[in-house]
Design goal:
CATH architecture: Beta Barrel
Order of helices and strands: EEHHHEEHEEEEEE
Low-confidence stretches: 69-79
Strand order of the largest sheet: 3-4-5-6-9-10-8-7
Shape: elongated
Number of helices: 4
Number of domains: 1
CATH class: Mainly Beta
CATH topology: Sortase, Chain: A
CATH superfamily: Sortase
Strand content: 25-35%
Length: 241
């Protein structure tokens, strides 16, 4: 605010009224500064909404029970032929060629196969399209480790850019179900454990050392969400039928 108004000056020989008013240039500069400031605040608010909005939305929908409810009306069927598997996958909004569905957190996405987890350009490109399948790991039904990863971002600003389908992965507990569609077949897995590991720990890309290999599904995301500090792993095993 600029000083303005009328003040009185007394005392001989100077006395009378003086009107205080900012110069035209000062008023213009002040108005422009206020406009720029308001614009910056507005831009910051909009940026914040677009940056964390998707994450906040996922949390709210999950807490209100809407994430799981979106899938609760679809009863999983014993798919014994190609047509039925394709229809079931389509009901979840994914394809039956290669995709993953996690009913509890409302996650459903197609999978990009054979993505080099050590090639940043390649895996970031894949994450813009869907969940990534780590190159060198196996596929459902082959009896070995299947490694899927998503939301592998290095900044909260990338939550909206890259696929955040695994953002709520930390909500999974032992016994929760994961469905993978592959080559027009359906494979069901049950969560056995969760682990937080170092960002550079690649041992989980391989089958466990020693003993007879067995099929396991590993889902990976970043921990905490929106950072690249650590990795959260959800390990699931096939459900016997």
């Amino acid at each position: 605010m600029f000083p303005r108004g009328i003040i009185y000056r007394s005392g001989y020989p100077s006395y009378g009224e003086i009107t205080l008013k900012a110069s035209f240039k000062a008023r213009i500069a002040y108005t422009l500064a206020r406009g720029v400031g308001a614009g910056l605040i507005g831009f910051a608010i909009i940026s914040l909404i677009f940056t964390i909005g998707p994450a906040v939305k996922e949390e709210i929908l999950y807490d209100l029970g809407f994430k799981e409810a979106a899938y609760s009306e679809i009863d999983l069927i014993e798919a014994d032929n190609t047509s039925r598997v394709q229809k079931e996958a389509a009901a979840y909004g994914v394809g039956s060629y290669f995709s993953v569905v996690v009913p509890k957190i409302g996650a459903a996405s197609d999978i990009v196969a054979n993505v080099d987890a050590g090639n940043e350009k390649e895996y970031l490109s894949a994450l813009e399209k869907g969940v990534a399948h780590a190159k060198g790991t196996y596929f459902p039904g082959q009896g070995h480790t299947i490694f899927l990863f998503s939301h592998s971002t290095d900044s909260p600003a990338n939550i909206a850019r890259y696929n955040a389908v695994f953002y709520l992965l930390r909500k999974l507990e032992k016994g929760d179900r994961v469905v993978v569609f592959f080559a027009d077949k359906k494979y069901e897995y049950q969560v056995e454990e969760k682990k937080v590991v170092a960002a550079n720990d690649t041992s989980w890309l391989r089958d466990p050392a020693g003993g007879e290999a067995s099929e396991r599904l590993i889902l990976q995301t970043c921990d905490p969400p929106g950072t690249s500090w650590r990795r959260l792993l959800v390990i699931a095993e096939p459900i016997d039928k």
